[in-house]
Design brief:
heterodimer, A: 284 residues, Enolase-like, domain 1, 3 domains, 4-stranded antiparallel beta sheet, B: 812 residues, Aldehyde Oxidoreductase, domain 4, 28% helix, oxidoreductase activity (chain B), Carbon-monoxide dehydrogenase large subunit (chain B), Ald_Oxase/xanthine_DH-like (chain B), oxidoreductase (chain B)
Chain lengths: 284, 812
């Protein structure tokens, strides 16, 4: 498979990358790990005029601590996220969701920021980012701005990023000591999620003190299951109350119908998987 | 005296060919480059059925690197060239012409309409985008039942019907059994079911590729094909090139599974354009092209009626099939369902049987042979309906099978179809499998979990299969109107240094012929395994053959090699006698040496080869060569069999099926290389299980293939499958000198019904008696909840993932 012709630039830093994007105009594409972009190029489903390759931008990779948050560089690979001690300690939900992404080859090449900026409704990382209230640090021609997760995901494969902007890093508030689980439902190991549930729970003496739950592929963007969260808070972390809360999972969603799942089945899955995800996160 | 050499047959040798095949550092067709080579790319129709109103190639011709852009009128101005179909199953069969490129009408989405030839593949691909084609919609024929109705829209209006052929076998009429209508009339128990064999993509690893060099005395065609010999003859016949002016080479070929058995429009188009330009031209398809245009497999509706006595004795079987041919006929496509005709009765002693198959044209990609070709479909139907009959009778499904199968002392056994099964021992394979599986223990666990209403239910599935392989006795093929014989050729060259070249007409594409044939010849001639080289796939060295399909390589191709080896020994004998000044009558050949009985004199086969090379002192009248060849035509098919048992966990809350345990005991006769046999079984199981659980080629209502990438067409990986327990019993075939049967298709044929039977068994207490394949989570969950057995399959929207991306403006 051969992509259409494009210009190629590989800037050495964030500012240079932003300039390159501005120069290239709105039909430019950013290349991070390439795990979504390359297939699309090769199938000629996209024909950007310029590819801005971030492989030489060194200061976008790695995880650091910053007060009550950890900061994950957009070019950090899934493999690095999976093994990072700060992620494991303060944002285990992201580690667990990353564990389910595709296969080892993809996880070695694909990046955290690339997966988020791609905004595939069936991708596994947007829902955990929304659940944890992550903030997206975006560089553009007029400097940097920060966008909350709830506003970052705009539509099907569409984010708050403008054509001349670059996702630089993601600030994830620490959820130290919270229980976490990502429940992914797909048909074969390498397939995208039919439905996924990201759950993060802080239990206090057998009672659920706080809960954060978000759903993958129940809409064009990740859905925060606030009905479930509200129903969980203050309840004992047992099967009965979790099941009752999970019944709120599909509220307000109108998921797509595809060959793997119609709307009714997706809503049913969202409830079942939410129950399982919360139970696993609460350790019950 | 030397010790007896340990036999090579039975040794689990690592495969000679693996290092180069696995690393890819070898001669795949697309790896080949010849001087001055050009690249072809084919523009394909996005429409399933349409009139081509105009094709404008002006802009494309002007583009950089473009040498030529051709349409149908350039490559076939007479509109006379059509792809061959070698199996006219009935005298009145309808066979539309399948052109190299569509001229006026496209009949499936993916059919070629123009070809670009350029200096590089990239330039050809870019120029393809610049071709403008206008289409005018024609009604799209997709549903095979609708297609047969009066007044249906027609794929090929000139044929005046969508029906390709009706083929019938009736044991009452053939005199091989009783009348099935009588059996139905007198039946104490009758069970009728409709099963659907979904459409599958063969999904071989190496996409198809062809390189044609017309510049030497023999036009040379390299192709990723499993049938180089058939391709040569068919190219000659179809394009009118003299056969001796064509050389076909199948270099290393990366899988086929039947999917590379065709004679392709792309192959003959590449020949045609290479000759027009008098330049070497290569065409290599993309994966998307492959999935859309390489032939598919299966796609049948099966209406099955089985009759029995209350005690479980089966009395009759009636099979009505409708088989989707797609838009045209593949090389052997009409005969694929017919290969199943003799297998629905399987291992059971049916007294009455009737089979009728109606082949139908639709506006879809053609179907043709896919691993098992007709026999998996048959095995699925019989093994599924045996389970349904067992439920109807209140019998254990294995007990019902045992009551009806051919007992080991009854072989050879002539079936209701008139085939004679030479050997088998279903009792032995079954008892071994039941023990390895812990059938009774799992049945106990199943009852316990059902009693406590466990959300995860256990299902147990059985498949006691047989197949006919070793295709095929030529006289049988003749009686079925097949266009060729079923023999195979083998030859042996003894080199002056005592090394051996083996030539085989069977053409490997991953099976391991080089290793297995080396083991066989090492035993036959008593030479080291390492001293044998196997040549194949090039009509210049391997000049005669009928190639590889239908588990025929070992049971037919290797026997030809054995016969050639016997001739080598026979030729060597008088020379050995002469060299040792002994009488031929006193010579014995063993372990690579002729010895004179009662003496310590001996001469090695290698010494004789050198003496023959020198030819200084040979007996009078002896031709100075040991080289020999043989053609072997099998007297019968071989009949591998086995017992396959599957245990699945079904999550009743989500419908997810998890294959928990899989045990199979296959009887494939004598095993040449256990490692190769295990590999064939493992791969076959994965493919058969994939039909049960994962794979389906889905078309939307406009005839567009929806599952056109591996993101949508789900192939399982090792992560999705359990560790298989495979074992064997060994009942040698009695119809060939090695006692071998063939193993290439066994796993695929047997496993699909075992898994679906297990899925249905897990949820039968919810009132479920069938779930269509693939048994997706949504289908299983819907069936549990009282819905239809064929939920889903055709989505109206995109649910995320690669297949849904068509928005160039989206952010990365």
């Amino acid at each position: 498979m051969i992509p259409a012709n494009f210009d190629y630039v590989a800037p050495a830093g964030v500012d240079e990358a932003v300039r390159a994007l501005a120069e290239a105009g709105e039909d430019a594409k950013v290349l991070a790990g390439g795990q979504s972009l390359l297939p699309v190029l090769r199938m000629r489903l996209a024909a950007p005029t310029t590819i801005v390759d971030l492989r030489k931008v060194g200061d976008m990779r790695g995880v650091r601590e910053d007060g009550d948050a950890i900061v994950i560089g957009a070019m950090t690979t899934h493999y690095e996220v999976q093994r990072d001690p700060l992620v494991a300690e303060h944002a285990e939900l992201i580690k667990l969701a990353t564990d389910t992404v595709a296969d080892p080859q993809v996880r070695h090449r694909g990046t955290f920021g690339g997966a988020l900026a791609h905004a595939d409704p069936a991708g596994d990382l947007p829902a955990p980012a929304v659940a944890l209230g992550a903030e997206f640090v975006i560089a553009g021609p007029s400097g940097r701005r920060t966008v909350p997760a709830a506003e970052f995901f705009v539509d099907f494969f569409t984010t708050a990023l403008q054509p001349d902007e670059l996702l630089v890093e993601v600030r994830v508030p620490k959820h130290t000591g919270w229980g976490a689980h990502y429940e992914k439902f797909n048909r074969v190991a390498q397939a995208w999620s039919i439905v996924g549930v990201a759950a993060c729970v802080r239990a206090d003496g057998g009672t659920i003190a706080e809960a954060r739950v978000a759903l993958t592929n129940m809409a064009a963007t990740p859905v925060r299951a606030t009905g479930v969260e509200n129903a969980l808070v203050g309840q004992p972390a047992n099967a009965e109350s979790i099941k009752a809360a999970a019944a709120h999972a599909a509220e307000g969603t109108s998921p797509t119908a595809d060959g793997n799942a119609d709307e009714r089945y997706r809503k049913h899955l969202a409830e079942v998987l939410t129950g399982r995800a919360v139970a696993a996160a609460a350790g019950s | 005296m030397t010790a007896t050499i340990e036999p090579e047959i039975g040794k689990a040798r690592l495969r000679k060919e693996d290092a180069r095949l696995i690393t890819g550092r070898t001669r795949w067709t697309d790896n080949l480059t010849v001087p001055g080579m050009l690249h072809a790319t084919i523009l394909r129709s996005p429409m399933a059925h349409a009139k081509i109103t105009s094709i404008d190639t002006t802009e494309a011709k002007k583009m950089r690197g473009v040498v030529a852009v051709y349409t149908a009128k350039d490559v076939d101005p007479e509109s006379s060239i059509g792809m061959p179909c070698a199996w006219p199953i009935t005298p009145d069969m309808k066979a539309p012409r399948r052109p190299m490129l569509a001229a006026d009408t496209v009949n499936f989405a993916g059919e070629g309409v123009a070809v670009v030839i350029a200096r590089s593949a990239a330039e050809a691909r870019d120029a393809m985008e610049a071709i403008e084609v206008d289409y005018e919609d024609l009604p799209v024929v997709l549903d095979i039942e609708e297609a047969l109705k009066d007044g249906a829209d027609l794929v090929h209006p000139d044929l005046e019907t969508n029906k390709n052929a009706l083929w019938v076998f009736d044991s009452g009429e053939a005199g091989t059994g009783a009348s099935v209508e009588d059996a139905i009339r007198d039946a104490e128990v009758t069970v009728t079911r409709r099963f659907r064999q979904q459409r599958l993509v063969p999904a071989f690893m190496e996409p198809r590729s062809v390189l044609v060099d017309p510049t030497s005395s023999q036009l040379t065609m390299w192709s990723a094909t499993q049938v180089p010999h058939i391709l040569r003859t068919m190219t000659a016949l179809t394009l009118g090139i003299e056969e001796h002016k064509i050389r076909v080479i199948a270099p290393d070929v990366g899988g086929g599974f039947g999917g590379k058995i065709g004679v392709l429009p792309e192959e003959l188009l590449t020949v045609t354009v290479a000759r027009k330009l008098n330049k070497p031209v290569k065409w290599t398809e993309t994966r998307s092209e492959c999935m859309m245009t390489a032939h598919h497999g299966r796609d049948q509706i099966q209406d099955i009626t089985i009759t029995a006595k209350r005690d479980g004795t089966v009395t009759g079987l009636k099979v009505d099939l409708i088989a989707d041919m797609g838009a045209y006929l593949g090389l052997v496509a009409p005969g694929v369902p017919i290969l199943g005709a003799f297998m629905f009765n399987a291992i059971y002693k049916f007294p009455a049987y009737r089979f009728a198959c109606t082949n139908v044209f639709t506006n879809k990609t053609i179907t043709d042979a896919y691993r098992g070709a007709g026999r998996p479909e048959a095995t699925f139907a019989i093994e599924r309906i045996m389970d349904e009959l067992a439920v109807e009778l209140g019998m254990d499904p294995m007990e019902l099978r045992e009551k009806n199968w051919i007992k080991h002392e009854e072989f050879p056994f002539t079936t209701v179809c008139g085939l004679t099964y030479d050997s088998g021992n279903y009792e032995a394979a079954t008892s071994k499998a039941m023990e390895l599986f812990d059938y009774d223990g799992l049945r106990r666990e199943q009852k316990e979990r059902r009693d406590r209403n466990d959300p995860v239910q256990l299902g147990i599935g059985i498949s006691t299969f047989t197949e006919m392989c070793g295709l095929a006795p030529s006289r049988v093929l003749g009686s079925l109107d097949y266009g060729a014989g079923g023999w195979e050729h083998g030859a042996i060259r003894m080199l002056p240094t005592g090394k051996v070249e083996v030539i085989t007409g069977s053409s490997p594409h991953g099976q391991g012929h080089e290793t297995a044939w080396s083991q066989i010849v090492a035993d036959q001639l008593g030479v080291p395994f390492e001293d044998v080289e196997v040549l194949h796939g090039d009509t210049q060295s391997s000049h005669k053959g009928l190639d590889t399909y239908g588990s025929r390589s070992l049971a037919v191709g290797a026997i030809a090699v054995v016969k050639a080896a016997e001739k080598v020994i026979a030729k060597a004998k008088p020379i050995a006698a002469h060299m040792m000044e002994a009488s031929e009558d006193d010579l014995e050949f063993a372990n690579g040496k002729f010895t004179v009985r009662g003496t310590d004199k001996s001469t090695a086969i290698q010494d004789i080869a050198l003496a023959v090379f020198a030819a200084h002192d040979l007996p009078d009248g002896v031709e100075p060569t040991l080289d020999s060849e043989a053609v072997y035509d099998p007297e019968n098919f071989s009949f591998p069999h086995g017992t396959h048992l599957a245990a699945v966990d079904v999550d009743t809350e989500t419908g997810r099926v998890t294959l928990r345990k899989y045990v199979c005991v296959d009887d494939i006769g004598v095993v040449v290389n256990p490692l190769i046999a295990d590999g064939q079984v493992h791969g076959g199981l994965a493919q058969g299980i994939a039909q049960a659980l994962y794979e389906e080629a889905v078309y939307d209502e406009s005839g567009t293939l929806q599952s056109g990438t591996f993101a949508d067409y789900l192939l399982p990986s090792a992560a999705d499958l359990p560790s298989f327990t495979t074992d064997r019993t060994e009942t040698p075939s009695t119809t060939n000198p090695l006692g071998v049967k063939g193993v290439g298709e066994a796993g695929t044929i047997a496993s699909t019904p075992a898994v679906v039977n297990a899925v249905v068994d897990a949820v039968r207490h919810f009132g479920v008696n069938d779930i269509e394949m693939p048994t997706t989570p949504m289908r299983v969950w819907t069936a549990i909840n009282g819905g239809p057995s064929d939920a889903g399959g055709l989505g109206s929207e995109s649910g995320g993932g690669l297949g849904s991306i068509d928005v160039p403006g989206g952010q990365q």
